[in-house]
Amino acid sequence: MSVGENDRSSGGAPNANRPPDVAGDSDELAADDPRRRYYRGIILRLYPGSRTGVVRTAHGRDVPFALADVRLRGDDATFASLREGMRIGFDLGWTSRGVRVTTIRI
C-alpha cells in the first residue's frame, strides 16, 4: 500500500483522528488569569442522567469525571452550564478507580 492509498482510506483527511487542538489557547490568557493554573482541555462527553462526563486533555487523553467528586469553579459553575465541546481548565487526582478529574474551571 502506498502513501496515497493510505490517505484515501481515511476519507482523504490525513488528520481525521487527530484530537482537537486545545493547547494553543493558553496564549490568549493574561499572565495573572487564574485559569492558567489548570490543565487545558475540552468536555468530550456529558451524561446528564448519571451527572458524569469525559474530558479530553490537550494531549488527547480521555479522563472521566463524576460531579460528586468534582469541584466546579468559575462564573455559573453548575453541571447544567457544562456543554460538550466547551474549553475548560481542569485538575487531576488519583482515586480508587485511577486518574480522574477533580476540579473543573469554567
Description:
This protein has one domain: Nucleic acid-binding proteins (OB fold (Dihydrolipoamide Acetyltransferase, E2P), Beta Barrel). It has a 6-stranded mixed sheet, with no helix packed on it. The protein is mainly β and 106 residues long. It is globular. The protein has 1 helix and 6 strands, in the order αββββββ. A hairpin with a 4-residue loop joins strand 2 (52-57) and strand 3.
How much helix is in the residues?
under 10%
Q: Poorly predicted ranges (pLDDT <50, ≥5 residues)?
A: 1-24
Integer-rounded radius of gyration: 16 Å
Question: For this structure, what is the CATH homologous superfamily?
Answer: Nucleic acid-binding proteins
Distance between the termini: 46 Å
Order of helices and strands: HEEEEEE
Number of domains: 1
Tally the helices: what do you get? 1
